[in-house]
Design goal:
The structure holds two protein chains of two kinds.
Chain A (H helix, E strand, L loop, with lengths): L9 H18 L6 H16 L8 H4 L9 H18 L11 H21 L3 H8 L5 H25 L2
Helix pairs in contact in A: 2-4, 6-7
Chain B lengths: L2 H22 L3 H10 L4 H22 L10 E2 H17 L3 H9 L3 H24 L18 E3 L3 H8 L3 H25 L5
Antiparallel strand pairs in B: 1-2
The chains are: A mainly alpha, B mainly alpha.
Chain lengths: ~160, ~200
């Protein structure tokens, strides 16, 4: 099938996603990822810590672990859809970062992303595909933050590339 | 809609997004990083087109009183939090979408990034439980609370309510700004060496 042989123009892909996101907005809410990830973190922490988790107020006052939280299933769906796409286009194979420095950068980057999402209450997806199109003030604050952060990150990345 | 129905809709939406992002190689990190570092705009243009469609769609339905906009107070934490996120996504080479999509393609580095995103979230939950900032959604009022560095709640619907101007009018204004940026990128691409 042609769809699985050629790379799709990202403008077309994102235009289709935007239209679907409008339907989501009407039914349950706009596309977001950070909220679902936070709930997964809470569920994982509950599985490990059990009732001890209730001693951390965040998990009783802000995100009470709930497997019925719909945002979790957007992330699981993305994982599934990407897996299907990769298998059907014969692009699925295990890839590992080759150098220790890559593992270190990914570790620091992951920690910053997780910490940043919770501090902001939003992720990049809610910023660009939810808050800003709703013209929420938080979207503009978040966009200015992410552009400044991406610039600083890019300068660090450039220095690393230049050795 | 029932909880099961909501989860099903979310899963179907996510699956289509995962498939389209995998086939198009779209990456939000690249949309910003490549524009800054390499002056290439393949992903930036896609992001802008999506934002234009969404702005018209969301503000159009908000004008009619429809839709489910995100509802919480905003403040300095959005700027600082997304700054940290922006640094992190460039270092990790993936954002929230591409970590899931690359994981689905068998990228172990993306799985590692996801794991540490979860750990970062858990670490923040410990910090929040110590200082209780930013305020929990249950304590939000929608009004500015400068002591807590919060500016309240406002979007196209609240602008419509306050000024009596349909939300779509503000949406058209924002779309035009995005269009100007999009056209500026096209112009820049045409001026680059090797362009047709």
């Amino acid at each position: 099938m042609e769809f699985f042989r050629k790379t799709l123009d990202p403008v077309i892909a994102l235009a289709v996603i935007a239209v679907l996101d409008i339907f989501m907005f009407l039914i349950i809410g706009a596309w977001t990822v950070g909220g679902g990830e936070t709930m997964m973190t809470g569920l994982a922490a509950q599985a490990i810590l059990g009732d001890e988790l209730q001693r951390i107020p965040f998990w009783t006052m802000v995100f009470k672990p709930d497997p019925g939280y719909w945002k979790i299933y957007i992330s699981l769906g993305m994982l599934f859809g990407a897996f299907v796409g990769a298998v059907l286009s014969k692009e699925f194979y295990l890839r590992y970062p080759r150098h220790l420095s890559e593992w270190v950068l990914i570790t620091i980057g992951g920690l910053l992303m997780g910490f940043g999402i919770r501090l902001a209450f939003v992720c990049n997806v809610s910023t660009f595909f939810g808050l800003t199109p709703e013209m929420n003030l938080g979207g503009y604050l978040a966009i200015s933050g992410i552009i400044a952060g991406a610039w600083v990150g890019s300068m660090i990345y450039k220095r690393i590339l230049e050795g | 809609m029932s909880i099961v129905g909501e989860c099903l809709v979310a899963f179907i939406f996510g699956s289509v997004v995962g498939l389209l992002v995998q086939r198009s190689r779209f990456c939000n990190t690249a949309a910003l990083r490549d524009a800054i570092l390499f002056k290439t705009y393949r992903n930036t243009k896609a992001l802008l087109v999506a934002m234009m469609i969404l702005t018209i769609g969301f503000t159009g339905f908000l004008t009619l009183g429809d839709g489910n906009p995100m509802h919480f107070d905003v403040g300095l934490n959005q700027m600082v939090g997304l700054f940290l996120f922006g640094v992190g996504m460039v270092l990790a080479g993936a954002c929230t979408v591409s970590t899931w999509v690359k994981s689905g393609e068998g990228n172990v580095g993306a799985v590692w990034a996801l794991l540490f995103t979860f750990i970062g979230m858990f670490l923040f939950s410990l910090l929040w439980s110590y200082n209780y900032w930013p305020p929990a959604p249950v304590s939000m009022t929608g009004e500015p609370n400068l002591a807590a560095l919060q500016l309240g709640y406002s979007n196209a619907a609240t602008l419509q309510e306050k000024y009596g101007i349909p939300a779509i009018v503000f949406g058209i204004g924002q779309t035009l700004v995005l269009l100007v940026i999009y056209r500026a990128i096209l112009r820049k691409e045409r001026q680059q060496p090797g362009s047709k």
